[in-house]
DNA sequence: ACATTAAATTCGA
DNA sequence: TCGAATTTAATGT
């Protein structure tokens, strides 16, 4: 409950700069955009803090403005499974909003992050009236399905370099995560959490990928040089 | 686990 | 408000 109060207290209106980075806002009519921006709220999540379920049921559609979140299952039922990392530009939670359910996963901040929220009622209202917004959401769902299929393949891969490569490639997805661009701010430790490897092993994997000119390692993050090859990365024959 | 290097923060003028 | 000094964070091995 303390968490919820903190989020409430920290909630504020988005800055113009933050609004500019919200991809779907630009697709709306002027009237819709004005209406919606007045309801958008922004708050900060500290490392380890859970963004979802600070309200009881699904009350917001969330977007990552800055930072890095991680989506995972509820560890109470057994093994901890990380579904995906959520970099800047990611918008999520529409599935539960559509069905008016409660969140079935945890979203937790990997580091200090700025998160935007659109109240559930406003989200549903937009869906009812705006065709461009519907197109955005459908496209989003479709792309995410693709991510899920790719994720199944990643799981079959037990080669660490391949896991790092393909998880990284997923984070550079231009449609799902338009805030990322060529340069992804993520530490090797954070990548380790997402992929399920030690920081040391991630470091080795990144070095290998850099040797092959797919990425460049920079302090505090990674730059992609060849996204296609990163996506298709296969471990070297033994 | 440890040594190195980069970045962020503090502090004194 | 500038920049040197110190502390913290990230990286490489």
Largest sheet: 4 strands, antiparallel
- The number of E-state strands comes to 10
Question: Would you state the CATH class of the largest domain?
Answer: Mainly Beta
* Total domain count: 2
Q: What is the H/E order?
A: HHHEEEEEHEEHHHEHHEEH
Number of helices: 10
Shape estimate: globular
Q: Would you tell me the structural class of the helices and strands?
A: alpha+beta
Radius of gyration: 18 Å
CATH topology term of the largest domain = Jelly Rolls
Poorly predicted runs: 1-6
Widest beta sheet: strand line-up: 1-7-2-5
Describe this structure in words.
The protein has 238 residues and is of the alpha+beta class. It has 2 domains: 8-150, Jelly Rolls, CATH 2.60.120; 159-231, Arc Repressor Mutant, subunit A, CATH 1.10.10. Helices cover 42% and strands 19% of the residues. It contains 10 helices and 10 strands. It has helices spanning 2-10, 16-20, 30-37, 94-98, 120-129, 131-156, 160-171, 188-195, 199-211, 227-231, and strands at residues 41-45, 60-66, 69-72, 82-86, 91-92, 106-109, 113-119, 183-185, 215-218, 221-224. The strands form 3 sheets. A 4-stranded antiparallel beta sheet has the order 1-7-2-5. Strands 4-3-6 form a 3-stranded antiparallel beta sheet, covered by helices on one side. Strands 8-10-9 form a 3-stranded antiparallel beta sheet. Strand 9 and strand 10 form a beta hairpin. Helix 7 crosses helix 9 (199-211) and helix 8 crosses helix 9 (199-211). The chain is globular, with a radius of gyration of 18 Å. Residues 1-6 have low confidence and may be disordered. It binds a DNA duplex (13 and 13 nucleotides) through helix 9.
């Amino acid at each position: 409950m303390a968490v919820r109060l903190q989020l409430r207290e920290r909630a504020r209106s988005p800055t113009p700069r933050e609004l500019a980075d919200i991809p779907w806002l630009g697709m709306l009519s002027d009237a819709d955009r004005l209406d919606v921006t007045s309801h958008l709220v922004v708050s900060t999540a500290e490392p380890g803090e859970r963004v979802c379920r600070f309200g009881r049921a699904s009350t917001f559609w969330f977007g990552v403005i800055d930072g890095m979140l991680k989506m995972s299952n509820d560890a109470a039922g057994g093994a901890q499974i990380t579904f995906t990392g959520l970099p800047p530009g990611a918008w999520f939670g529409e599935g539960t909003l559509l069905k008016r359910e409660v969140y079935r996963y945890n979203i937790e901040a990997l580091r200090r992050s700025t998160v935007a929220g659109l109240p559930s009622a406003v989200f549903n209202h937009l869906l009812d009236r705006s065709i461009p917004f519907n197109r955005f959401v459908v496209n989003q769902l479709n792309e995410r399905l693709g991510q899920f299929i790719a994720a199944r393949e990643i799981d079959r891969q037990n080669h660490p370099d391949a896991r790092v490569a393909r998880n990284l490639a997923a984070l550079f997805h231009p449609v799902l995560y338009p805030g990322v661009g060529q340069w992804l701010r993520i530490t090797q430790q954070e990548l380790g959490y997402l992929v399920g490897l030690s920081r040391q092993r991630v470091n080795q994997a990144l070095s290998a990928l850099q040797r092959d000119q797919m990425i460049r390692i920079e302090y505090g993050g990674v730059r992609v040089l060849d996204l296609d090859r990163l996506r298709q990365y296969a471990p070297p024959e033994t």
